[in-house]
Amino acid sequence: MDNLEKKYAPSGDVVVREIEGELVIVPLVSGIGDIEDELLTLNETGKDVWTRLDGSKTLNTIIQELSGEYDAPAGEIQKDVLGLVTELVKRKMLVEKK
Amino acid sequence: MKNSYLKKMSVDRFGIWKNKKPVLSHLDLELTERCNNDCIHCYINLPADDSQAKKRELSGERIKGILAQAADLGCLSVRFTGGEPLLKEEFEDIYVFSRKQGLRVNLFTNATLLSPSLVRLFTKIPPLEKIEVTLYGMSRPAYESVTRNPGSFDAAQKGIQLLLDNKIPVEVKSVYLPQNRKEVKRFEKWAASVTGAEREPAVTLLLDLRCRRDSETMNERIRKLRISPEEALEFLTRNGKAYREENREFLSRFAKIPGDILFPCQPGVDSGCVDAYGRYQLCMQLRHPDTVYDLNDRSLQEAVLDFSPKVRSMKAVNPEYLTRCARCFLYGFCEQCPAESWMEHGTLDTPVEYFCRITHLQAKWLGLLRDSEMTWEVEDWKERVERFTQNEE
Fold first, then answer.
1. What is the CATH number of the domain that holds A77?
2. In which element (H, E) is residue A97 found?
């Protein structure tokens, strides 16, 4: 199956907050990497990707948009976006929108 | 584009934010002053069935409003305390709301009211910070002679066991009182084995008087329960080498003359406290009328951004304070602060003799003072502190 045609959105199992420019991901339910000594944040590029993962755009669309914005090869961006999405899905912070 | 989009923010004892901090990082919320225990030493407790106090308490909806304001200000953690916060009927609703705001929750509780359903909630929606339980003794007689609540020992043990069985992170603490002091070593050993704590459990040694200054009878009782300065020194220095090391590190950072600044401490900078009735305070103990701000028709933002800096800019005026505390290089080491002055004397700048005596005994033990010296008379304090902090013995 072509992963790039999938759409993703934040899961209801996390609360994402913007604090002092940082996007902080706070687990809501157990099993989300709720190690009490850590919180996860997204860097600037991660934020750009995250804000597009609202369930309305395919990964392909997101990659094309970012490729134009960052003036970087689509292949490189694709690798990074898929890497981020895979990590977030594994941590149950992101879910596929069917 | 970089490979790593996700980074971990480390949460340690000293807070989450290291450099750039939000307006409000942390909020303490007293859900009630009422408690189902009636501890002999408590600085705040009211009876659980005090209907007048209950009527005056903030409603669940008002509390949620304050929590939402806190989250808007960037707050990432809230501590629920009291009294006994689990007495609040709306506790579960308030808790879930906090977590859905993206707040980490720290809970101070006596654990006697922890029900299986509440623990199931904590399992499903974890607080993300440890639940801190104060245990008043390791045996029923000791425990219940402190709490004066028959059945509370078994209820607390049951509550703690529920948390442990469900792998909910717990920190246990105690208070050093005549009724339980023979059990302190046993408590420390048990605390380490049960919770796997990496450091020694906290044992409150120095009791505060009533923070509302509401009962001289209770204050008299607390004074009688207070450990003597000499006993306090003996307890503090029982692990001599560790005590010395810990204070080397502390004094290298905090030994300084405060002058007439009343608030060289951190409360109110990016943290604050709201009492059970909707009043903002810089810290949980400080309730002097000039230092509290009524949130019932004003915002938390105004409290933190306007009111708090005004309080923090207050200066000491008491000549005795200006002679002693204002010139003391161990002010940061001493328990003296505006809150303690308030609880002891009803002012913000009166030296508290009890803490002064304890600090002087410690200073002499650490070799920072000679026998007849007072800290505010020492002129070469910087050299003494430097010699102390650099000495590897």
1. 3.90.930.60
2. strand A94-97
Best residue in B1, B128, B171 for a mutation probing chain A (most A CBs within 10 Å): B1
Closest CA to B156 of B147, B165, B166: B147
How many domains does chain A contain in total?
A: 1
Contacts of A16 in chain B (CB under 8 A): 102
What's the rounded Cα separation, in Å, for the pair B195 and B169? 8
DSSP codes joined into one string, B264-279: -S-TTSSEEEE-TTSE
Q: B7 pairs with which residues across the strands?
A: A41
Q: Which residues of B touch A46 (CB under 8 A)?
A: 5-6
Of B1, B8, B102, Cβ closest to residue A26: B102
What's the whole-number average pLDDT of chain B? 93
Residue B171 is inside which H or E element, if any?
strand B170-175
**Two tokens, residue B93:** 């609703």
Q: Which CATH class is domain B26-238?
A: alpha beta
pTM of the full predicted structure? 0.93
Whole domain around residue A51: which residue ranges? 3-97
ipTM field:
0.88
Select the residue of B7, B21, B104 nearest A43 (Cβ to Cβ): B7
Beta carbons of A38 and B11 less than 8 Å apart: yes
Least confident of A48-57, B155-164, B227-236: A48-57
Instruction: Give counts: helices (H), strands (E), chain A.
Output: 3, 5
Q: How far is CA B92 from CA B81, B87, B296, in A?
A: 14, 11, 23
User: For the segment B81-139, what is each residue's pLDDT rounded down to a tens digit?
Assistant: 999 999 999 999 999 999 999 999 999 999 999 999 999 999 999 999 999 999 999 99
What is the C-alpha to C-alpha distance for residues A7 and A61, in angstroms, rounded to an integer? 10
Domain with CATH 3.20.20.70 in chain B: 26-238
